[in-house]
Amino acid sequence: MRWGTVDCEFRCGAGRIGRRAALEMGLCLALAPRLALAQSEPARERPKEGDLLVVASAATPEPLKPNDLPLDGKQTFAWPMDPATSAVRNGSRLNKVLLLRLDPEGFEAETKDHAVEGVVAYSAVCTHTGCDVINWHPERQLLECPCHYSMFDPKEGAKVVSGPAPRRLPALPLKNVDGRLVVAKPFTGRAGFQQV
Fold first, then answer.
1. What DSSP line would sit under 116-131, residue for residue?
2. What's phi and psi for 154, nearest 5 deg?
3. Which structural domain, as residue segments, surrounds residue 104?
């Protein structure tokens, strides 16, 4: 064994491994408990069935109702909130949801299945490079990511209508429980973008 060279080897139960692999394995073993804890933090957990939705910028989280959203207005950004513990799931930006209230007459069938009283919910994170989808074009009723100008049609399941985004924004199916917007099921797809 020669320290300071690439060809150092260590013995383990599986045979010989290189120094870099041994260091990486040690780092993984050291960080594993922290990573497991981070993934189990309520604020980082993905939206779950029964979660309420609260305005992302609110100082005091209040569950949203369909009529809290303006008809045909700009999207509202929200976080899911555990109704039992009031833990807001804002520990990962992949949990950020955009909400729109539109006339459901123009919705395709799948969009109608995920919507409640004209309210649709989608991941706020663009599927191209992960920017937030913050632009709303009311005249065309399209969402736009300002980073590379991908456009999404919320009436057709947030399908991509132009730009480089490789896939639609995942929907977050909703239901109305006691007049409040509630998560009916988890996101229909992976939130965020996937590096190639």
1. BTTEEEEESB-TTT--
2. -70, -20
3. 52-183
Cα 53 to Cα 16, 19, 151, 184: the distances in Å are: 52, 48, 24, 11
Domain membership of residue 193 (yes or no) is: no
Region of residue 149 (left: phi > 0; alpha: psi -120 to 50; beta: else)? left
pLDDT tens for 46-105 read 999 999 999 999 999 999 999 999 999 999 999 999 999 999 999 999 999 999 999 999
Whole-number pLDDT of residue 187: 97
In whole angstroms, what is the distance from residue 32 CA to residue 37 CA?
9
Cβ neighbours for 113, distance < 8 A, ≥ 6 positions apart: 173
Identify whether residues 98 and 169 lie together within a single domain: yes
CATH number at residue 100: 2.102.10.10
- Burial pattern 4-23, b for ≥16 Cβ within 10 A else e, equals eeeeeeeeeeeeeeebeebe
